[in-house]
Amino acid sequence: MATDHAVVFTPSGKRGRVTTGTTILTAARQMGVDLDSVCGGRSICGRCQVEPMEGEFSKHELTSSNAHLSEFTKTELEFDAKKGLDPKRRLGCVAEICGDILLDVPPESQVHRQVVRKLVEVDNLVIDPVLVLRYVEVRQGSMEDPSGDSERLLEALTEQWDLTGISLSPAMVGEVQAALRAGKWSVTVAVRDGAEVVAVWPGFHEDAFGVAIDVGSTTIAGHLCDLASGEALASAGRANPQIRFGEDLMSRVSYVMINPDGAVALTTAVREALAELIDELAAGAGVGVDNVLELTIVGNPVMHHLLLGYDSQPLGEAPFALATDRAIQIPARELDLRTHHNAQVYVLPCIAGHVGADTAGAILSESPHKDSPVMLLVDIGTNAEVVLGNQDRLLAASSPTGPAFEGAQISSGQRAAPGAIERVRIDKDTLESKFKVIGCDLWSDDPDFSDAISDIGITGICGSGIIEAVAEMFLAKVITSDGRIVDHLSNRVVADDRTFQYLLSDGDRKIYVTQNDVRAIQLAKAALYAGGRLLMDHLGVDQVDQIRLAGAFGSHIDATYAMVLGLIPDCDSSQVTSAGNAAGAGAMIALLNRASRAEIEEVVRKVEKIETAIEPAFQTHFVEAMALPHLTASFPNLSKKIILPEPTQPVATRRRRRRDTQENT
After folding, report:
1. Which of 53, 206, 332, 403 could hold 408 in an S-S bridge, CB 3.0 to 4.6 Å?
2. Would you list the DSSP string of 214-266?
3. Where are the chain's structural domains?
4. What is the dihedral of CA 189, 190, 193, 197, to 10 degrees?
């Protein structure tokens, strides 16, 4: 008579009793333990590895030992010879229980494992992709059983994997027939959303990859992931080729309006870029593009519409109507992408005419809807998206910041690349500057700086550099609170026609910050601040608890300098942090966790859309935000860290009048 044994799995803490001879995998299934197995217990995949614990565990009231499992099997020895098996681990599909045992299931053996995605700053992501691989053995047909190959495959999936109601498209029938014979009636299938077979391979196959893509107006970034483990195997980015049709979004929409073939040209350009990006990612990871089976994409509304082939012209004029605000699922081949021929693309939903799927991705990544503190989430780009709120209420808007933050419209501006000035400091007494450039860790006043940058040089100034330069000029009183560069008895401030400019770098190529540069930054920062302030009005708050700066540019901004300029509202500096590429992180979450898709679709439907173009208060906030850091708003948190210059007389007068008006009201 078989003996009953106590079995406990960690970290789940699930426990039960099984009889002698029960395999670990069977015990796990009986207790509902999260133990992976692509091959269904046929000792092929090695995903069901566990680690038996040694010793007495009073918490679990048992003594656990390796001796309480069956001896190491021939199957495990063969697996170790082929793929390697940690000597402390056993294969759950063959190791049998013959005594009380405590078993640890390592993260890589868990189906819904949690991983930390440092690459795009996704923390504690639960891996549960919409597409999974399943190995099945199908009974061969006979004269007595004339049923079709496809029907017997579906029957096997139901019996071996409990996939009831699963379907097979007519296009797959021929592939199944060939794969079954090539695999001698054993195949691996890709099952999408637990309902449909979308790919089939002869025998055992364990490669299934997905790609998460953020289609920005300036840059397209992608990450290739193993759908089973969640591991990001490759990342790459490239300039959006649509830039040649227009630097900002509205100029591209104008191009479509003016040129009969404009829409086709823009759509073709971005699709070709995505196809090339996928090729690059696959090559970087050493995998075939035909094993890319799932893709997720985010982008602003114009990028969204041009990629999908929708008419973008309605986005160029009020009421800025979207073709659809719902999530889109479309075969990758319809977007001319080189992937597995049955790969699907999931495009996150847009929120409003100027607040797109990239913002939905940022919300999914940052989760302001799940917590009580009021968060201001700002994705800074040519068109900045702003989200404000918490678990009770969420609002979103866009602000027309323009391309100044990315180096455009700046006299020596450029995109972030080696040689670009990215950090700036100005001595308040001498007005002498020092700076850092991308590609070098030394400050420019270091004796070894010239040698360190000999290969890259000083090529210009990027977004974070111009932000710090203008902020430092304000703190050093080179510019006034209304943004005017004033003359100083210094060779750093020089005449420029009827205005002045500041000499930032006097090397082989002189880098100046001109009066027009300062005005461009003022306009951009005022638009961004006004968008956030407008949402604060609608939410009925005068301050925010947290600020998250997202986007390639936002992730490199120093929070202190952002407040010195009045780019964002005053906030405890410890609560102003970088969110990195939050939109891309959201795309990755949607790629690796299918429940997140329903989550973001529901959240987006509840977001309140505020259209800045028709809000009278936006213009008021914009005008007041032109001053440094602001005409009327106080910055008590910032003032604890930095002594701000006194406002110039015109600004001081306007502030006093504004204050008097508010008091009288």
Report:
1. 403
2. EE-SSEEEEEEEETTT--EEEEEEEE-GGGGG-SSHHHHHHHHHH-TTHHHHH
3. 4-109, 131-202, 227-347, 369-665
4. -50
What gap in Å lies between CA 452 and CA 435, rounded to an integer?
13
Q: Which tens digits make up the pLDDT trace of 168-198?
A: 988 899 999 999 999 999 999 999 999 999 9
Residue 202 bridge partners (DSSP):
187
Helix (H) or strand (E) holding 302: helix 301-308
Order of all β-strands in the sheet with 344-347: 232-239, 219-226, 209-215, 292-299, 344-347, 328-331
The CA–CA distances, whole Å, from 459 to 138, 219, 422, 442 equal 64, 20, 11, 16
Do the bridges between strand 4-10 and strand 101-104 make them parallel or antiparallel, or are there none, so unpaired? Answer: parallel
Give domain 4-109's CATH superfamily. Beta-grasp domain (3.10.20.30)
Q: Is 102 helix (H, G, I), strand (E, B) or coil?
A: strand
* Length of the chain in terms of residues written: 665
Q: What is the pTM of this model?
A: 0.82
Strand order in the sheet with 510-513: 493-496, 499-506, 510-513
Q: Which residue from 501, 539, 283 is spatially nearest to 410, judged by alpha carbons?
A: 501
Name the strand (E) or helix (H) holding 168. Answer: strand 167-168
Q: For the segment 546-604, what is each residue's pLDDT rounded down to a tens digit? A: 999 987 677 788 889 999 999 999 999 899 998 888 999 999 999 999 999 999 999 99
| Token couple for 298 | 């985010």
From the candidate CATH numbers 3.20.20.140, 3.10.20.880, 3.40.50.2000, 3.40.50.720, the one assigned to the domain spanning 131-202? 3.10.20.880
What mean pLDDT is predicted for residues 153-174?
A: 92
Q: 560 is written with which tokens?
A: 């202190």
Residue that wins the pLDDT comparison between 654 and 491? 491
Q: Which residues contact 431 (CB under 8 A, 6 or more apart)?
A: 476, 478, 488, 490, 492, 493
As a whole number, the mean pLDDT across the chain is 90
pLDDT of residue 490: 87
